[in-house]
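Model the whole thing, not chain by chain.
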Amino acid sequence: MIKRFVSLGLFVATLACPDFVFAENLSPFEKAELKRLLSLEIDDLAEQPIQGVLGYDQEYWRNPASVHVIRPEDITEHGFANSVEALRAVPGMHISRGLAYDNFAAMRNFSGFSPQKFLGKIGGREVSQLMLGSANYSVDDYPVAVIDRIEIIRGPGASIWGTNAVNGVINLVTKHSLETQGDSVRLLTQDNGTFMGDYVHGGQISEHSYYRFWIRDQEYAEGTLNSGLPAHDDGYLRKAGFRYDNKLGSDLNFYISGGGATRRLAHTLDLSNRLLYDLGSLPNSSQAQLKALLGLEPTSILTPVPLSLVQGLLLQDFTPFATPAQVLALLPQPGLGTYNPLSWAKIANGTVPFQDFTAVRYERYGELTNDSGHIVAKLDGITDSDLEWSVRGAVEHTDISLGHIGFEWQQTQYDLAFDANRPLGDFHRLSFGLAARRTNLDIQSSVIEPFAFTSLVNLAANPLLPSSYSDSIPVLSYDQAFTEFDRFTAYLQDSISLTDTIEVSIGSKFEENDLAGTGFQPGVRASWLANDSNVFWAGYSRAHRQPSLRERYTTLTPAKVWSNLGGGIWSNVQFAGGESLDREEIDSFEIGWRTRPDEDFLLELSSYYYDTKNAVLASSENANAYEAKDAESYGGELSIDWEISKIWRLRGGYSLARGKVEGDRSYDFPEQTASLTSRLSYSDNLTFVQSLYYTDETQIPSDYNPVTIPSHLRLDLGIVWEASDDWEVGFFGRDLLEPYHIETMFPGIDVEPARVERTFLISIYKKF
Amino acid sequence: MIAQRAVLRYALFSLVIFGAWGLSFSGYSQTAEQNRKMARIEASYLTHLTKYIQWDSSTKKNGVKIIIHGDDPYKFYESLKYAIEVSSGGERIADFEIMHFTNDQTDLALKNIKEGFQILVLTKKSFLTAEDLDKIESKGLIVVHGEQLFDNTNAPIAFQYSQNRVRLLIDRKLLNQGGIRVSSKLANLRNAVSFVDK
């Protein structure tokens, strides 16, 4: 595989690489860079470093990494409410919408679901929740008026970014308060009643100090499940935040920012398949009669089926083969004392198909709450010897409740970090840093109705042990011995101008982590300016990902099975987390080609091969919820940015991603995704935006209800009218090609996928 | 066996690091890429500055004459030409006459300077000295590189490189003496400009 990968790189290099001489005229890259510099305010020119740290300046054309930068207008011109939605157009990323307006982001790999394997940084904070190993990008989002840019760095960047930057980094950078002076308002409303509004105000306190505050309200209309039933996910998300910047001296800056959010939404938990009847526990004679009755082969194995299905069989007309009484004799029902059928009957809601039959559908609604607050403070400066440094501290508290399964946790995190870089001679720039993080957790599990009845802890492990009875098994429980985690990191990286055309960065991160152990994460990257319009780059990185707490310390009890053994007992179906799950270690090899035949056309091609040890995956073979396997993935991305004329710009992307787990193909990440966006300026104040997105089929793994998400094509159309320099009005149609499609679901404690429906919306935006 | 492979892998990695480190200290004389980047930023500064200056009616009519003097291996002249062209969609370039003279063409440059200019920019490699600048009688904006030339001449503006950034040094008094009227917005800039009284 590596040989094939390198051969591809050499082939591409050979095609596009004549002998290089620096031209006297500006190269297309230099022209494009000048255009970018001219788009900056004059004050911002003073922020442009001359000698860069490879990996910091994402827009530098010789950056040896696959990078995509999203600007605020990429959000407003498409009518996106949350900035994460704009990531749909990033090659190599898979953005999917699930229930309760949650958008999930995955990158490049066989990690199609919530344990995301990239680092999320928003406003200077690492936003990943240790419990689920993922972030909620809706809750942690900012009003677009305060967003400077979102950098998406694909591929491991461990030496600077550290743990969890396994597949890449998403870094949302907010603006200095000086850039948000005055008032800004943005209102968005959808045809189904979903609404978002935010307001930002900024002002000046003294000659060198500025502030802003903002508020935001999102009101969600109720969606629809794939089955057509109501999703009960209406609710709200309300947020507020502030930032204060002060220039303490000519070379000393300080800012403090903070924010809080409260969200209330409901989740629907499908219980239809959570009360099962073990047909295999029936006497052999009954099994044989049942197989004959159902038309099954005598040698077939009867597996657990929904209890409601068995109860339904009593009402089925099997004449002339059997009467209800005969079926009842074959299938003795659980006694009324062993569970409460009435509590299940209360939540019965229609029927669901089960193979050739129909079963009663049971649903439980629970409130999903998310309350959070954070404060970040940063002091940065530069000394006369060009040492650029910063000290950052952050405190964050989150309280999340998954009401539908009775699981709640409070997470408090304290961060302290020091970063610096300085030149070392003419050709080196050394960057280094130290960071410490403490996380405290308080976790509560409760047994929810209708699961509160006596059952064996684990039939498989203790089939007939009365001592293992329990009547208080929550759906998700946590090992309370693990509630405090520390992480210490240090890194050192050198960016080297090896020659005028070759730049190299070499570095390593050292980490001592309660969850990921002790280790080095080295990386080396290089870029080569082959000629005026071609840059080649390559990189090797080793990165670690810490298992999420859910993967390690939770036990999932998603279902109970009635067994006819010993007169009839209930037992729990359990999947324990793996305390012994080690950190994931990924060796990544990347190559890329960036070409700019002229300043208006950019084409980028990147290719990667990942070799992952201990990849944590949903278990399919044993009683553990997760298991560690060796995996490999490979693929590439192609992106173009073409300014065809002054009024028309096209941007497109294509991604191919393949994953293998111990040799077997994995399909939880779409093999192919593509996007094409056209921006046509009809006049100075009227812009048409058209976007087409394609996502291949994916398979969401689940121990209980695996789902295939069909491939889908999405067409969005928009028209943006700039009524004045400050005011912008947009009309948008989304998912116009079909009434609805599905994009994702929660595995394990799964909920039926929600429909992503065709919508129309209007936005009004008053800019600063 | 696994341990041996791990040791080998880290040994190879270390070799690459130290090899690259060693190579990087040898052979190359200038960080040309950094100089070119500075030239692009300076060109962007100057393009912005032309918008801050309130030109008199004669200049508006006849166009802004910008003279660049000095050898220019880092493409400042090309950058400025392109930046001004782009800054207003290609139309504004007609309002500018941008001339470049190398050090070998100093006599020709001085002749053109004598005939009048709106902006004179000395590149980093310009041979013109403080004495040469003192002899210039034509009114116009002189932009130099570095604090030394700025302190010792009547140039009201200099590009200053320090702390890995490029900023502007401006002497407002000299600017006014030169008959240049600059928008008051320039005084409100937070980072880009240091105002100095020479």
